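This is your field. Pick holes in the following sequence-structure pair:
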Amino acid sequence: MGNEYTDVRQHILDTAKPIILGKGFSAVGLNELLAEAGVPKGSFYHYFKSKELFGEALLDSYFADYQARLDALLKHGQGTAAQRLMSYWTAWLETQSSEGADGKCLAVKLGGEVCDLSEAMRTALHNGTQRIIEALADCISDGGKDGSLPVQSDARNTALTLYSLWLGATLLAKIRRDRSALEAALTATQSLLSLPGS
């Protein structure tokens, strides 16, 4: 399959992401997605064998983009590991407390909705979030090496705890329609990492 196939397939995924971030997976019909993408209605199954496999591809695409941005910040960003890590959390607070779908977390939006409906989508969510936790753990370990963070006996567990905290805070921010849970998560993160300001 050539580049045109890949380009159209990616265009459908890119068009769908903000729509699904706004409405959820089940509430969005294929006709709506294809009309918005400007793709003929009958061609969806040429690119995806089912809506479930489309959802899996959407999550895979989302996490690939997210991982690239995460690596750019946590591995190749400026400053100490602690500064890079706190830049990540600060950016999370800003994007998840802003209006609109841009930058919103697809794991938060779809996690509760699709995990019981689709094993393929649950697996995509699991794999994607696991890679994020591993990147966070690597940055926490780097902070112990460069002296910007206390040495963590279990960086993976610390990363899992922090990621869980932020996912929960993001969900609460959606429920409350304010950023207080995210601000509390930032304070708790600084405290857990023994950083100034905690």
